[in-house]
Amino acid sequence: MNTRPWRKWLKPALTLFFLLLIPALLYMMARNLDWNEVKQSLHAYSPGTLTLGLVLALCSYGVFSAYDLVGRAYTGHHLPARQVLPVAFVCYAFNLNFTTWVGGVALRYRLYKRLGLDTATVTRIITLGIITNWVGYMALAGAVFAMRLVKLPEGWVLGVTGLQLIGFLLIALAAGYLYACGFAKKRTWTWRDHEVELPTLRLALIQVGLGATNWALMAALIFWLLPRELFYPSILGILLISCMAGVIAHIPAGLGVLEAVFLALLHGQLGQGTLVAALLGYRTLYFLIPLLLAVATYLVLENRAKAMREHGKATPSKP
Question: Which pTM was predicted?
Fold first, then answer.
C-alpha cells in the first residue's frame, strides 16, 4: 500500500496549523501580558549581563562558522580560513533572519562562487553544513530527551515517555550516521547528478561535536538571561523542542514559535513578562546585532570582490 499521498499534504497541513496557531497564541499573550513587567525585566539587565550574553552569541556564531572549515576539509578546496569564516558568519545571520533559502543557500552560492569555487563544491559545503547542524542536534536532543530532562505540562499528548522514545530514536540516527561514516563499504552515491560521499569518521565526530556545541551555546544564552533558579538542561530541552516546531512552521527566525513553546513549557515557573523579556533579549543579542554585523561584513566582502574584478580587468593578459 502506497503511503506517499498523505505525505504530500501532511507538511502543508502542519505548516498551516502553526501559521494559524502561533498568531492566535501571541494575540492572547499580548492581551494578558503585563507589559510593565516586561519593561522592568529589560531594564534589570546590567551592561555586564548583556555583554556576556553577546559574547555567548558570538561564540555560537564562531562555532557555526567552523562548519564551513569542516566543509573545506571535506571538499578539499583551498580557500583560507580568513575568507571562509566571514562568508559563513554572514550566511548564518541571514539564514536565521531570512530563511535557509536566502542565507544558507542563495547567499552562500553567490559569495563562494565569487571566491572561485564551482557549483558542485559549494553544494557539498552546504550539504555537509546542514548535516553537521542536524546530526549535532540529534545527538544532543536525543540525550536530553532520553534522560527525561524536560518537564512537559500535564495533559500533553506526547508525554514524557513519548519524548523519551523520540530521544532514543534521535540517538540511534546519530549513531547510525557515525557508524556509516566509519564502517560503510560503499561511500559514494549519485543523486540527481550530484555525487554524495560520506565523510571520514574523524570528520563525522567533529560534526557531532560542533553541532551539539552550537545548540548548547544558544541555550546557554537564553539560560543566562533567565532567573538563575531554572535548570539549564531543561532550558536546553525546551529550545530543542521549539526548534522542531519552528522547522514544521517554517517561519523566518521562528518568529512566535520560540516564545509560544517557552511560555507553554515554563508556565507557572516564572512570570510571563520575565520570560518574554529574556526572549526579547535573546532575539536582540542572537538575531538582530549579529545581523547588523553581517550586513557590514557583507558590504566589505562585496567591495573586495569588486576590487578583485577591477584588478583582474586592469591586469594585461600575457601574450
Answer: 0.80
